[in-house]
Fold these 2 entries.
Entry 1:
Amino acid sequence: MMKKFNLKYIGLFIAAAAVVSCEVEFDNPIDEAGVYTSGEADFSNYVSVGNSLTSGYADGALYLDAQLKSFPAIMAGQMELAGGGEFIQPLVNDNAGGLLAGGVQILPNRFVLAVGANGSPAPAVYTGEAPTTDITNTFTGKLNNYGVPGAKSFHLGAPGYGNIAGVATGQANPYYVRFASGGMSTVIGDAAAANPSFFTLWIGNNDILSFATSGGIGVDQTGNFDPTSYGSNDITDPNVFAGAVSQYVTALTANGAKGALVNIPDVTSIPFFTTVPFAPLSPANPDFAAQIPALNAQFGALNQAFAFLGVPERSITFSTTAASAVVIKDESLTDISAQLTQVLIGGGFPAQQAALFGQQYGQARQATEDDLLVFTSQTVIAQLNSTRFQELVGLGLDQATAGQLSVNGITFPLEDQWVLTPEEQTAISTAQTAYNSTLEALAAANDLAFVDARTALSQVANGGVSFNGGVLTSTYATGGAFSLDGVHPTPRGYALTANFIIDAINAKYDANVPKVNIGAYRSIQTSDSVN
Amino acid sequence: MNKLKALAVLLLISTMAYAGGYRVSTQSNRQLAMGHTGVAVVNSADILFFNPAGLVHLENKINFSAGGFGVFSSVSYQNSEFGTSSETDSPTGTPVYAYGTYKINEKLAVGLGIYTPFGSNVTWPTDWSGSHLVNEIELSAIFIQPTISYQLFDSVSIGGGPILAIGGVTFNRNAGQSLTDEQGNRSNVGIDDSSVTAWGWTAGLMFTPNDRFSFGFNYRSLINIESTEGTATFSNFPNSALTPANGETGFTATLPLPAEITVGLSHKFFDDKLLLAFDYNRALWSEYESLDLVFENGSTSINPRNYKDSSSWRLGAQYLATDNLTLRAGWYYDESPVQSGYFAPETPRNDSLGYTFGLSYQVNSKLAIDASFLYLRFKEVNESYDFFTDPGASAPSSFGGTYKSQALIPGIGVTYSM
């Protein structure tokens, strides 16, 4: 009897223990249905289409870590909370970046920020591991990310753009070769065949960007409707752009998919064009300071000639107290070589020297704040231009004189490829404005979300965007938003990109997809594994 | 001494934080069942912990008790802004205790206690969204307390003794929210120190004006666990002069085990069959201002804590149901020492309510088996830790969200008297 009585208590004890041992449950658990919603959209098969920005390209390469943090991958991770499905990317093998074709490296490894021998950090090519991604190893089957680095608008619809035979000749893109469904397939065809329920399309950046990064050495093809005749650094005709993109939107919406179109940011938003100042020549540099008097004396005669010819604005002077602008060759200026030569001869210059000066400074001027020096110009400014040096030596100048006249940006005007002049910037922004109007109109006509990346990125460039842990700006290396190639975002920049696209999608489709904490995504990668 | 230390290290079994901060109120099955009251309850040798002045009041010449608990805890975290959520998968904590007392004469008793009053054992998923604050922490301290108790006057006894504390800690977290090596692996710092010793003391007073009423007071001193001989392991840092090198290095850190004051009373009713007890604890947590890790490789990790002194209010009841069965129940309210904005997921403790019950079964005149159960419920809380700054960042990044915790702590023990 007694024993039974005790068992009762023990039973009660165990039962009570069982009652309270339920799982921890929040009052409003976020994993419950209905917390995050897709609204009128359906995220079950999200497909992203675009260029390097869609692929996750960063630091001058496509490498695994950044690819895993591509903006579409980040978005897909958040969409998973609102009915999103699996998101498959054509992942590269490694974090070296770089591509091989049949074992031979055809594209370089990524940049890292390395502390050099002088103790200051600078970008360098990462050599901590060998690249292993060979474009002969191809993907088959369904993908979700159809971002192809380097693709321009018309490339996405170009058959053969993924044909390995065309890589060597520049007809095909090695990144697309990796996952093209066939030798004559198109990126857009493959993306549409993936049967998206939702898509993002961000294309057109390279249609102006390659012109911009090349300092405008290409041609503005506005008016030329045949893209097969374009060079790689040309600006795409806005009608060609419009025709291509509207065809892609039709293909992607064929089965009723919803999606978002993203517009083209300003080139001035990216550090590639904002890092090198137009006036980088500082008298604080003793080597340069020592030359200033001689330079000013030499340019004095030239400046008199400019004044005489009615173009005093082309005068070249170097300040002993403030940083001076580089001397550039502006192809939009009237070429006054011949007149200049005559005036210099009249001023008592020997004929050969006058001709030389006339030729060298016929379209020269000092840069102004309206000129954009490209990022790569920093490696040549104030350096000897060996091509020019050889030329001058060939013309019979002694080495000292030839050297003196061959200093990039000081005595030898910076060539077209290093500077975006206002005229070139206008060509870019005219095309950009046209592209963006097309994108906005296409979004409206097809009832798609329109993402104003241009405005979002200009906020980053002008003052920055605050986040939990700092401010994201477009300052090179330290700003956090842009990777070391100066063009492509860091994973943190891609996270910001994902957030503003999510904003636009939420607004358009009455969805509730949470944004990401951009502070949880890294900015630039430091490494001294650079040989 | 070395043998004792070795034994203690062997006994450094993982324990668990449940009384705000990393204090673990599981020092007796009988008393835990009564809301962990006990500063004025003379039940068994367990009084050695609750109030050393009570030792002399034990009826038997020799008393021994020992037991342990299984701590099943979980903490859930979610952040609705970002859609992130995580849940701890902490190993079961097993705090233990053993007390022995010997009554030399009616006025004098001595004893020895070994128990684990501090500890924390929290394992979050590796690289979870708060991994820059903690991936995993295992903190344990074992206290060894020789005790003497003396009946000063008819109604007043005193007691006390030194405490040898042996602490150990392993703590692992990522170096930042986003710092990685070249492969994208999160840069990580782990520290490990297994046998830090420190001394403290305890003293108590018990006032027993009659057979039914007791009043108790107990003070336990601050013990600073100063870690100087441990190992810190830096891993997955990039090969860069701008970040610390990978590998092992030394470190120093001080973790305070705060002083605690307890006052309480108990009263017997109904032919002494029912006993009611009330305890009030005040833990002087304000000692814990910052956890500062200084590494030999030149890096530091400064983690403001800014704890505040905190209180617990405890109620317990004991009922002698039959000659050999005693039932117990209790309740307590435990205030967290963690202040708003300092809520770090390594000790995700907000104010909690403890519901306890238990029983003792007297097997024979000498031996009893004690069982207890504690259900510890934490109110859901929206909190953040605002004092972490990523390496190289210009501003601190707050880490917050909604936390909800609970713990289930069953325990079993034995009591032996002769």
Entry 2:
Amino acid sequence: MINAKEVIEESLPVLTVCAAISIMSGMFLGNNQELLKALPGLLIIVPSFNAVNGNISSVMASRISSGLHMGLIKPRFHESGVLRTNILAMTFVAAISFLLLGMVAAGINSYAGIEMANFIVFPSITFTAGILTVVMLMTGSIFTSYLIYRHGIDPDNVVVPILTTIGDFVGISMLLLIASAAI
Amino acid sequence: MVVANSMLRIIEETLPVILLFAFVGLFTGGFLNTLIEDTSVASGLLIIVPGILGLRGNISSALGARLSSGLHLGYISTKHISNGLKTNIEISIFMSVFVSFVLSILAWQVCSFVSGACMPMINFMLICVITGLVSGVILSFTTSGIAIISYRKGLDPDNITLPAAASIGDVITIVCLLISVKFVLGLGL
């Protein structure tokens, strides 16, 4: 049976930490309000961009924790074929997703008559920012999964929410950084 | 073998889902773009956007995960409204409202500390709590519906419920946020 008190006690601290971290992403958005107003096409891509990053890093984290539990991956830093296959595959998925996302968003922007609908520049921004973010997040998820596994904590309850929240922050900063550098 | 499968297999399994939810995210982005027009009257509004989207995503995916376990273990039934389901929905709505409240206070503090130009704290609180409550109610029922229907159809709720709840959650939350911003600004506090 479900114990309401227990669930609340377990999740509230993680949720509050996540809320606090996400304020930083919000600050970044708020501080760059002028850039976002000047380039309305950019804001449209923010939720999708965060969704791709979040999905890729949580898929990665749960794959690694399954691998660790089954003994296919050792919690040490060494040359691992399984780990390499996973990293390469997810990087490929990320590359395709960010390119397509950039092109579709550019299409929507030009259809809706929103500025910043250059079919070369826009996908290049999402692609560059996306790949940089995904590489950072995958490295992060490997490290945290190893650390957490060594301490005997189940990665699912803590790693995934915190990782996706940090991912939002890294993703938004990277997107704004690359966009302002590109223009 | 979950981890040791080939690169092609991993790509085939993950790419369609990730792309699908990326495109759903564009709807959220479209709404977000209309929100920025309100920021001139509701300064500091953008600060709460990642937080409120993130917390809704976390709460609904946790609800989805608990419902899947409950369905697998059998203490949640697909035929009638069981106590397990009711408690889960109540917890989810409670946490949504509570964390939204905490978020609004944090956001107001940070906003007034960093920029100084912020709307009053009461506006932050009302916008966040109304958004948290309304989206919490809608999403708890939607997530439960998706979990129960996918379980009835013999699909593993873990694979469907979590990504679906997160993406639908974003769209619904941003619409609730837009409406509550209009409502609270209309109060003229």
